[in-house]
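Checklist before submission:
- one chain only
- standard amino acids only
- sequence pasted in full

Submission:
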Amino acid sequence: MIEEHRLRTLINCEVPRRADRPEEVSRREHRRSRCPAPRQLDAGEVGHLLNMLLEAYDGRRPAAQVRALVAPEVYAGLTGPRRPRPRHRTQTIHTCTPAPEVVEACARVEADGRSFALAARFIRTPTGWWCERFALLKPQEPAKPSRRAA
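Returned file contents:
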């Protein structure tokens, strides 16, 4: 059994075209209309971004993969000389919104059984969220006692 299919034109369904040209729209307005503003980050998304940045910091992810997500200063810190680093894992994440376009985060990070503090600041851009500050705060090495001559 073969069915025959016929194409029907949709003349009656076409949207009528405007005779006059639309008014000129600036590039900025056009970009805004195509790309809606990114929504607010929640703690889960912040955690995902922080883990990506920690992977780049540890050398387990190429820093070029996060280049579009970070400020040039942060990128420079991620692309420094590579030394073997332990794997850092986020344990707890806290976020706050000091301004509508800003999300600040702090986290407790563990590596090799030690805990460290992590601080980050994300700002909203027309294309998405951008990490403006990223700092892994490690404790200072204990000072070695100096030997006094007796």
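Reviewer check: The longest helix spans residues 43-58.
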